[in-house]
């Protein structure tokens, strides 16, 4: 079996397993290439009709292309879309200039915390991948967060022979990572194979493109001539620059990502 | 070609993380910005290879691996996923999680220290997980001046021990992970060694032909799609075709496969590891935990099984305690009714004084009684029906193998 097909079958299995175990579930969609790929897999897993909400955590600082893409496909794919903003933090003037750590923590993590509490979610599907960042490489597919959202990476349950966490204690929730084992290259090969629509930000314009997207304020573009999926695949097969090199939250200090994640960041 | 997943195991400090760092470095799998970051964080001046993998703050400060990590590299031959498994005994469940996903295993041993407690336990766990062929690396050859005699002594000790498990050693390679001897490039110093480098040995491995075993399709869930009930699941072994006569276990009802479906796709057949939906011709009731097999199968539902169990929870398992058993999508309450042949997994010595409970990190044979009927068999017959986990309070506490 070819590798990409094997990854698809495995991810679909995990998505169905998550839904079978946790009925109060939702998925996070950042509109980036990974979570859009995950959304595609979720649609396939449920034969076109997703039986749970799709949540966009909106920091208010996203690219305008992201909002356009979101609204267009939410309609076309008939999604139960929930857009969630930490308005209180925004009203207090939280922004990257006043501290990136607090900005990420308030506008992403705290927003997620609120939506999980409000919707009483037991599980959320997230499109993170192991090869993106060393800390994410330590993740489980079914990963528990306690009521304070903390990730106890020293006491993670074993996962073996396709047996995953079966339940949670009160106030805990599970992060399910169905595409944890995919690489960046796998994602683009799958996008090509399935012809998945992806926002234009990834494709080079005037010799610049984004390789990883988030908030406009904290993403930088890289030199690239890759303006098609094929050219991106070609570029990735030869590059020696890491995927999230344009993402500020990974760089500020060596452990910023670990600190963010231990507080519940995706 | 499919990626090859390698797990690297061994005693703490025998050099697992350093070896992986070296592999990534020599195959140019570390990005420029990452390398700059690592250089900036290395105080001593020379590159600390373990730093590439040990990302958690405590891991870097204490120089130990806590959680298994997966990283990627490629050669001209194929792509690899390396799973780095922690060596400390407290993290043995992380090691098992890592190892259970691998296609092949590499055991690394410090030439000076030889076989240690975790070397033995890891080898034993590998054997239990079904790894019968491994690559043995004797590391830190630089420390013993690259002497052939020292290498051979340590190999002899390891092979003697491994002879007591079901593990067969494919290659014994003398290496220095720090200096790169025989990892990606042949050693310039150990000219007495005529064998392969680690990369050559890996590139040469072939994944066993996916067994042409009998059909096993565990039902994972049942959905309503276009107003009809459709079972979904992943085929664990064998091939399923439209029109096949199947038996629905454990109730032994018969049906025939009407359709095999994926989203916007109708298939005539589906193979091992495919996630598919199915409908049957007669309206049989399907639910999670049903196993579909061909009607000529000899599998029968049972409530009593003999198995080998490896216990990892802190609290011991006592006879007659109720706990949950899961095997593929099947789940039921069960209890251990008797315990025999208990073994200490680090010395492999028999434990004779105590047959009422299984303590942490012990392994034994047990007789298990399940509340519901299940379909399980030996791993040799159908791999996935010969493996199960034991669960208490939502956590996996033990592993079982039927052989």
UniProtKB/TrEMBL annotation, chain A:
It comes from the Bacteria. The keyword Transferase applies. One of its GO terms (biological process) is sulfate assimilation. GO terms for molecular function: ATP binding; sulfate adenylyltransferase (ATP) activity. Its EC number is 2.7.7.4. Transmembrane segments: none annotated. Keywords: ATP-binding, Nucleotide-binding, Nucleotidyltransferase, Transferase. The keyword Repeat does not apply. It is an enzyme of class 2 (transferase). Residues 24-219 form the Phosphoadenosine phosphosulphate reductase domain. It holds the Pfam family PAPS_reduct. NCBIfam families: PRK05253.1 (NF003587). Belongs to the PAPS reductase family. CysD subfamily. This is Sulfate adenylyltransferase subunit 2.
TrEMBL record, chain B:
The keyword Nucleotide-binding applies. It holds the Pfam family GTP-eEF1A_C. Residues 1-212 form the Tr-type G domain. It comes from the Bacteria. InterPro entries: EFTu-like_2 (IPR004161), GTP-eEF1A_C (IPR054696), P-loop_NTPase (IPR027417), Small_GTP-bd (IPR005225), T_Tr_GTP-bd_dom (IPR000795), TRAFAC_GTPase_members (IPR050100), Transl_B-barrel_sf (IPR009000), Transl_elong_EF1A/Init_IF2_C (IPR009001). SUPFAM superfamilies: EF-Tu/eEF-1alpha/eIF2-gamma C-terminal domain (SSF50465), P-loop containing nucleoside triphosphate hydrolases (SSF52540), Translation proteins (SSF50447). One of its GO terms (molecular function) is GTPase activity. Keywords: GTP-binding, Nucleotide-binding. PANTHER family: TRANSLATION FACTOR. This is Bifunctional enzyme CysN/CysC. It comes from Anaerosporobacter mobilis DSM 15930. The lineage of its organism: Bacteria, Bacillati, Bacillota, Clostridia, Lachnospirales.
């Amino acid at each position: 079996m070819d590798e990409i097909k094997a990854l698809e079958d495995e991810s679909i299995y995990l998505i169905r397993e998550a839904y079978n175990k946790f009925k109060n579930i939702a998925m996070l969609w950042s509109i980036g290439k990974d979570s859009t790929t995950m959304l595609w897999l979720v649609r396939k897993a449920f034969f076109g009709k997703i039986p749970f909400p799709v949540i966009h955590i909106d920091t208010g600082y996203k690219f305008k292309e992201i909002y356009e893409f979101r609204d267009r496909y939410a309609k076309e794919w008939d999604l139960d879309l929930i857009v969630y903003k930490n308005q209180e933090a925004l009203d207090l003037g939280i922004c990257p200039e006043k501290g990136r750590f607090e900005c990420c923590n308030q506008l992403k993590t705290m927003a997620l915390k609120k939506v999980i509490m409000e919707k009483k979610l037991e599980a959320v599907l997230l499109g993170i991948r192991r090869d993106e960042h060393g800390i994410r490489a330590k993740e489980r597919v079914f990963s528990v967060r306690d009521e304070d959202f903390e990730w106890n990476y020293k006491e993670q349950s074993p996962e073996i022979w396709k047996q995953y966490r079966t339940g949670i204690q009160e106030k805990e929730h599970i992060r399910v990572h169905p595409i944890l084992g995919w690489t960046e290259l796998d994602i683009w090969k799958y996008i090509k194979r399935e012809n998945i629509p992806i926002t234009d930000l990834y494709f080079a314009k005037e010799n610049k493109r984004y390789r990883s997207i988030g908030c406009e304020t904290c993403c930088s573009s890289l030199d690239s001539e890759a303006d098609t999926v094929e050219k991106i695949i070609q570029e990735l097969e030869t590059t020696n620059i890491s995927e999230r090199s344009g993402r500020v939250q990974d760089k500020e200090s060596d452990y910023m990502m670990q600190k963010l994640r231990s507080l519940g960041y995706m | 070609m499919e990626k090859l997943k390698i797990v690297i195991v061994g005693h703490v400090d025998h050099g697992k993380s350093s070896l992986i760092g070296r592999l990534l470095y020599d195959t140019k799998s570390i990005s420029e910005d990452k390398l700059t970051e690592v250089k900036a964080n290395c105080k001593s001046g020379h590159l600390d290879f373990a730093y590439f993998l040990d990302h958690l703050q405590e891991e870097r400060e204490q120089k130990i691996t806590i959680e298994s990590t997966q990283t990627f590299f490629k050669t001209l031959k194929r792509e690899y996923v390396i799973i780095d498994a922690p060596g400390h005994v407290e993290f043995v469940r992380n090691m098992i999680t890592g190892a259970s996903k691998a296609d092949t295993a590499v055991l690394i041993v410090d030439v000076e220290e030889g076989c240690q407690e975790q070397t033995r336990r890891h080898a034993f766990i590998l054997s239990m997980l079904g790894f019968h062929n491994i690559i043995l690396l004797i590391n830190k050859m630089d420390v013993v001046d690259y002497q052939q005699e020292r290498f051979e002594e340590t190999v002899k000790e390891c092979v003697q021990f491994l002879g007591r498990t079901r593990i067969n050693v494919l290659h014994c390679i003398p290496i220095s992970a720090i200096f790169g001897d025989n990892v990606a490039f042949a050693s310039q110093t150990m000219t007495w060694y005529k064998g392969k480098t680690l990369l050559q040995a890996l590139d040469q491995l072939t994944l066993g032909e996916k067994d042409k075993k009998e059909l096993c399709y565990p039902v994972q869930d049942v959905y309503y799609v276009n107003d009809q009930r459709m079972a979904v699941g992943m085929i664990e072994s064998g091939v399923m075709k439209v029109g096949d006569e199947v038996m629905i276990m454990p109730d032994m009802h018969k049906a025939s496969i009407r359709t095999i479906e994926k989203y916007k796709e109708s298939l005539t057949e589906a193979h091992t590891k495919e996630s598919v939906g199915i409908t049957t011709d007669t309206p049989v009731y399907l639910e999670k935990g049903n196993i579909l097999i061909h009607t000529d199968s000899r599998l029968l539902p049972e409530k009593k099984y003999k198995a080998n169990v490896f216990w990892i929870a802190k609290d011991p398992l006592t006879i007659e305690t109720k706990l949950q058993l899961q095997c593929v999508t099947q789940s039921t309450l069960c209890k251990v009714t008797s315990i025999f042949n208990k073994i200490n997994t680090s010395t492999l010595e028999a434990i004779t004084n105590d047959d009422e409970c299984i303590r942490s990190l012990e392994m034994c044979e047990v007789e298990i009684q399940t509340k519901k009927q299940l379909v399980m068999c030996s791993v040799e017959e159908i791999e996935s029906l010969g493996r199960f986990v034991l669960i208490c309070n939502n956590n996996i506490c033990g592993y079982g193998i039927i052989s």
